[in-house]
Write a structure and sequence with these properties.
The chain is built from ten helices and no strands. By secondary structure, the protein is mostly helical. The longest helix is centred in the last third of the chain and has 21 residues.
Length: 176
């Protein structure tokens, strides 16, 4: 695979994006793309993360190669596009088993703070919901955070939160 920096710096991003999405990336290439994202907390990293997430969509199990490392640097990431893409990939897999408390704390942070984009909050909410299935006692806390934040939610986030709240009710009922 040619150098990702060269591809991502090109003039015709659509063509380059389509090329990267059409070719099979080896595990080594995926790791190189991941490292490019990790080392570029900027629009280039955001663009690379979009490609990365689309590659993860093609094989959702591949995120497992990166999820343990993600929690180490994602809390410091400032680029919303990277946060959105990486959380989306994690939310479509299963709740990370390693560093569970760090993932839970980070996702609550994203959900509570007003500085984060709607999509970041949606994916954080989904990851927290996955943990609620594993740890039903978290359901009450997530429900409280969602209900407290609803007045600030956009229509899209409010719709997602209503679906999560319904599912949390079922978890809470099973806990009783």
């Amino acid at each position: 695979m040619s150098d990702f920096f060269t591809i991502l710096d090109g003039d015709d991003r659509r063509r380059e994006r389509d090329y990267l999405l059409s070719v099979e990336l080896s595990e080594k290439d995926l790791k190189r793309l991941y490292e490019l994202i990790r080392s570029n907390d900027n629009p280039k990293g955001s663009y690379a993360s979009w490609i990365f997430t689309n590659k993860m969509d093609q094989d959702k199990k591949k995120i497992a190669l990166f999820v343990d490392d993600l929690i180490l640097w994602l809390p410091e990431c400032q680029t919303q596009g990277i946060l959105r893409s990486m959380l989306r990939s994690v939310s479509q897999h299963e709740a990370p088993q390693k560093n569970e408390s760090e993932w839970i704390d980070l996702c609550f942070h994203y959900l509570i703070k007003l500085d984060y984009e709607i999509a970041v909050k949606v994916h954080a909410m989904q990851i927290l919901f996955m943990y609620c299935k594993k740890y039903p006692e978290l359901a009450t806390e997530l429900k409280g955070v969602i209900e407290n934040g609803e007045k600030n939610y956009s229509p899209a986030l409010a719709a997602r939160s209503r679906n999560i709240l319904k599912s949390l009710e079922r978890i809470s009922e099973n806990l009783s």
